[in-house]
Amino acid sequence: MLHELLLALSGHGGGLFKDCGEGLKVLEGLPFIHPSEVNVLNQLCRLGTYFRDFSLFIDKYGSALSFTNTGDDSDSVLLHGLYLKALCTGLDRVLQDYRQVLLSLESQVLADPHLGVTHVLYTLQEYKLLFPALASVIDQIVSHKAHGCYILDILHKASSSGFPVVKQNLTRILHVCHGVLFKQLGAWLLHGNMHGRDPYNEFFVQPSSGEVVLSGDTQNDDEDVLGIMGVTGRQLQRLMNLSCLETPSESSCQFCVKADLLPSYIPQRVANKILFIGESIQIFENDKQKVQSHKTDSILKDREWEFAKDLHELSKQPEFNCMAFEALIDQIRTCVSERLWTLVVKESGLVSHLRMVKDFYLLGRGELCVAFIGQAGHLLETHPTATTEHDINMAYQQAARSVHLEEESFIQRFHLTVDTATKPNKKSSQTDKLTIAPVETGWSRLSLSYSVQWPLHIFFTPAVLETYSHIFRFLLAVRRTQIHLQQCWSLQMQNKTSNVKQEEAAIWQLRTHLAFFIDNLQYYLQVDVIESQFGILLDKINSTQDFEVIKVLHEQFLTSLLSQSFVHMKSVSSCLYEIFALCTSFSQLLVSADVTLSTGQLSHIQTITTSFQRQSNLLFRILSSVNSHSSSPHLAQLLLRLDFNKYFTISGGQLGSVYNSLSSVASDQSISSGSSFRP
Predict the structure, then answer these.
(1) Three-state DSSP class for residue 140
(2) Which of 24, 375, 381, 463 makes an SS bond possible with 45, Cβ 3.0 to 4.6 Å?
């Protein structure tokens, strides 16, 4: 019987022990087995059932890395990979101890035929605790269809047991699985690639889709604009605190950390450092070969062997040492960050490139912007065509020559692009205005591209340049509006007389109000926002030698520009773009007017006046409400520019009200035949 029992403990049935669907058990009704022994034998048979199930699991998933689904068992498709095979290897090592115990028991049975069943039970006592724990882990892996590093998380949680035998053996299995993790970490941290190390996408660092996500409750923002004249200050404050775009680094990453694959005992901050190291090495090494750089050393300063040795030493430790692991990751990150700082900031002159980007994207070279608007204005006032992009770049070069920039090499790095694709028509309403110009012209589709030299491409990523281009379009819209109003003033000065009619004075006073608003907005953007934030950025860059810190500072700089220039605050930007359109319409009407203004033209001016009053009043209410809560100091700064002498407040929070008398004057003078007007 003892020999049959040993056979059952090995997972095989026999004459006395059968599997009736619930695992191996003693046959019922055997006369030579005392009833008191049946319970003991069934306990031992339970161990044999566990061992058999473990062996079948190892045979199924430990011999190959992937399977093809040929039947109803869909697990064969989902359960695969290096970590699963490592789990089977570690499990087999644990079961090897069990096999050795069975061999020892067989020797004892052969030496002593009178050996009792209780001795066998005593010898295998620890496996009564271990095998159920192992079975629970396997059931959890199968039921959850665990894949990759998720298996590590399951094993780690199960190893936190109060039973020493369970903790010890699960730690042994986890150690084997960590061998795969450390090999993948070595490939990613030292070489920046996972080629051959992660064929089944099991590592917690995976390629990212790179989608840009808008945060904040922007969906209902337009509805808030519609009823903003009747909302409370708290609602206005909530409306103004809408977040802008997600940080460029998160949206531009080629890789990301998959939360469902990240083991819980590896903190998110450490995973982000691992992501940064691998991405930096990959971009640096790959693009260095493409541009045939004279730099021959690696980004790790030839310390790969040192870090590889440290990783190997960590992998040999029986238990995963979180503190030592994070310390090593910090060492590698510091090495990579300092090397990138030397290359990007010191050797490549990051500060000079930032100044150049500011001059062109943020209109720091105002004379070039004015010259370009004059050269390309007629090309971009209509819907762009296939030749528009070529024409505006010729105009851009001509503008550069007119302001004596043609000799500077960096002008060749910038190229204007125009999106000529036809966009689907959308139903628009007074409250459905995006952060683009209301009319689809070449100006609203204009972008500025920058040819970034190596290795600055890891700093000026495509997402960062797209953000700059977005701000560029907004600033260009402000500058164009300002130029249009200045042209009206120049025309007025050329034709002014001592005898000015009342309606003419009201029109020019309206132009003054429009120009006052645009001029103060322009000053606020260029001085209070751009120059201020750029100075803060340069001060912080000069105070650190950590590339990752510098990149974060630059992202904060862009975020500040987006928020303080209201590019993504729909409530404010919609007001501003509406005012820009009103100013443009006003300027075009006066410039194109004959000696007299017709009734339709005067009516159009009245419409412009009413709309300007409404939009300026809406903007004043928004700025005043947020300012009262001291939650947005940049909005308060803009309000200070517009209302420095309290004229805005005294006039009821609206500009352009001086023209209200025009309609009554026009009625009294019967202007149906036309009113005299000297532009």
Answers:
(1) helix
(2) 24
Q: Return the DSSP state at 674.
A: -
pLDDT at 19: 72
The residue among 96, 102, 280, 313 whose CA lies nearest residue 188 is 280
- Spatial distance between the Cα atoms of 107 and 94, rounded to a whole number of angstroms: 21
Please give the torsion angle defined by the CA atoms of residues 333, 335, 340 and 341, in that order, rounded to the nearest 10 degrees. 100
Q: Looking at residue 501, what DSSP letter applies?
A: -
Angle subtended at Cα 418 by Cα 392 and Cα 410, rounded to the nearest 5 degrees? 60
Q: Which residue has the tokens 């689904």?
A: 69
Cα angle at 256 between 456 and 543, to 5 degrees? 40
- CB neighbour list of residue 46: distance below 8 Å, 6 or more residues apart: 23, 24, 131
Q: If you write DSSP's letter for every residue of 448-479 in order, what string do you get?
A: EEE-PPTTGGGTS-HHHHHHHHHHHHHHHHHH
CA angle, 270 as apex, 264 and 275 as ends, to 5°?
A: 110
CB within 8 Å of 92: residues ≥ 6 apart: 58, 62
Residue 668 exposed, middle or buried by CB count within 10 Å (0-12, 13-18, 19+): exposed
C-alpha dihedral over 472, 477, 482, 488, to 10 degrees? 150
For the ranges 356-360, 490-494, 518-522, 631-635, which has the lowest average pLDDT? 631-635
Report the C-alpha gap between 275 and 298 in whole angstroms.
18
Contact 142, 73 (CB under 8 A): no
State yes or no: pLDDT of 178 exceeds 50. yes
Cis ω for the linkage preceding 455 (within 30 of 0): yes
What CA–CA distance (Å, rounded) separates 651 from 658? Answer: 10
3-state helix, strand, coil in the chain (%, to 5): 65, 5, 30
- Give the span between the Cα atoms of 267 and 262, in whole angstroms: 9
Give pLDDT, residue 499.
57
Structure-token pair, residue 119: 């001795």
Q: Domain segments of the chain: what residues?
A: 2-180, 183-347, 362-423+431-451
